[in-house]
Write a structure and sequence with these properties.
single chain, 453 residues, alpha+beta, Beta-lactamase, six-stranded mixed β-sheet, 16 helices, 17 strands, 34% helix, globular
Length: 453
């Protein structure tokens, strides 16, 4: 009995250390994050464009943290003063780590210099942060832009945002706000994907039906499955459609029939290979994108899942990384926010190297999906993403929301013939004041040509 109790205690300690440790260390309620050495000036946080996003200044016997235009990058930067969040939490020890401590402390005796921690240079571009924030406007939602070849997250914006400078004084209001401004919707927001999930259903068919291009369906605008009535948008009758036309027009009936032909297990298997129901390694806390379908799920549950409804949920970060893999011939790169760390003299202490993940598409699958996504933009539901400067490949989505108006999606990448950046945009309870396809097009343009502007 004592041996068993000893093993259980050891097991619990290991769980706290290995599994729960990171979450506990970076939790906003952890008081240890505020216990700092007042003789050390925390390092700055920079954008990849050199903009100073966060810095410290001495006030009497302590240091105060300041943020430049902090509202644009609030959910990336996080906050201090009442615990810590975001990069302020996950990079806390780096920001307070002293490089060449002996030299720095000797300097304080002969000059007015301060002992400084290392600074963190992020992958995000401050200009893109403002553009994304302005484009979302008063809507709730998120934008994520990833550099396809490296995995660098060049823009990550969540709305509603907050001013990290005054979080402590507004804590109760922020904490109880029904719009959850403290929630990073880009990484933690879980949404029904709607029709952007048809990428997964289409891939399942490509993998399991050698004659998939010959699989057609007569769409009348409404279809019936068990206890589920399946309508296309506005009950539009698309007529006879194949996979390419159905994908471009986002025909719900076709993809429901396709999934019903394929069966539960094949759709589950494909979703699993794409990373559903698993964590994405990332500097900030993320929610798991999930497909809650089983071999015994009903026909209604299957067809709902096939069009991105039911119990299927995704995060914007996950979907941006998924379409980035399509643009990278099937190979996803691990997304990251910290580009490199510099010391008080500006010397590089460490640098994040791009890290390939396991391939989730074959090059031929990626090519086929790219061709289908180009049709969406050129002649289908994604025409608002069409650009005169480059070819966009993408997919739109409308996700039914039981608590209000539909959520609207766009995911894609550009240029389609030589992909550089991938984007995911979601707008909650969209009221017509913003269009995710337009936001995506403008974010791709400003990402591709940002050095020229």
């Amino acid at each position: 009995m004592f041996l068993l109790l000893f093993i259980l205690v050891i097991g619990y300690i290991l769980k706290l250390t290995l599994i729960d440790g990171k979450t506990m260390i970076t939790n906003a309620y952890n008081p240890r994050l505020n216990i700092t050495d007042d003789s050390i000036k925390s390092g700055n946080i920079y954008g990849i464009d050199g903009a100073v996003l966060a810095y410290s200044e001495k006030t009497e016997n302590t240091y105060k943290r300041y943020y430049n235009n902090g509202q644009y990058s609030a959910h990336v930067l996080g906050y201090t003063g009442i615990g810590k969040a975001g990069i302020e939490a996950t990079q806390n020890f780096i920001l307070q780590k002293i490089d060449d401590e002996t030299i720095q402390r000797l300097r304080t005796f002969v000059s007015d210099s301060e002992v400084e921690g290392n600074s963190v240079v992020l992958t995000i571009d401050s200009r893109l942060q403002k553009i994304a924030s302005d484009l979302i406007g008063s809507n709730n939602g998120a934008v994520v832009v990833i550099e396809i070849g490296t995995g660098r997250v060049v823009s990550m914006v969540s709305k509603p945002n907050y001013n990290p400078q005054i979080v402590a004084s507004n804590w109760e209001q922020l904490r109880t706000d029904e719009n959850s401004p403290l929630l990073n919707r880009a990484t933690k927001g879980i949404y029904a994907p709607g029709s952007i999930f048809k990428i997964v259903t289409a891939l399942t068919a490509i993998r399991n039906m050698p004659d998939v291009d010959n699989f057609t369906y007569e769409c009348t605008g409404t279809a019936y499955y068990e206890d589920k009535i399946m309508n296309c948008h506005s009950k539009t009758a698309h007529g006879t459609v194949d996979i390419n036309t159905a994908f471009a027009k986002s025909c719900n009936g076709y993809f429901a029939e396709l999934a019903n032909t394929l069966g539960n297990e094949k759709l589950i298997e494909t979703a699993k290979t794409l990373g559903f129901n698993s964590n994405i390694p990332f500097e900030l806390e993320t929610s798991i994108s999930s497909v809650l379908l089983s071999a015994t799920s009903t026909e209604s549950e299957l067809v709902e899942t096939a069009i991105g409804q039911g119990k299927t949920t995704v995060t914007p970060l996950f979907m941006a990384n998924l379409v980035a893999a399509i643009g990278n011939e099937g190979l996803p790169m691990q997304p990251y926010l910290v580009d490199h760390v510099v010391n008080y003299n500006g010397g590089v202490v460490s640098r994040t190297l791009p890290k390939p993940m396991t391939a989730i598409f074959t090059p031929s699958e990626a090519k086929k999906l790219t061709e289908m996504m180009i049709q969406v933009v050129n002649s289908g539901t994604g025409r608002n993403a069409n650009s005169e400067y480059f070819q966009v490949a993408g997919k739109t989505g409308t996700a039914q929301n039981p608590h209000g108006s539909d959520h609207l999606w766009f995911v894609g990448f550009a240029p389609a013939d030589n992909p550089e950046y991938a984007v995911a945009v979601v707008l909650e309870n969209a009221n017509g004041s913003a269009n995710p396809s337009v936001i995506a097009r403008k974010m791709l343009y400003n990402s591709i040509y940002r050095e020229d502007n």
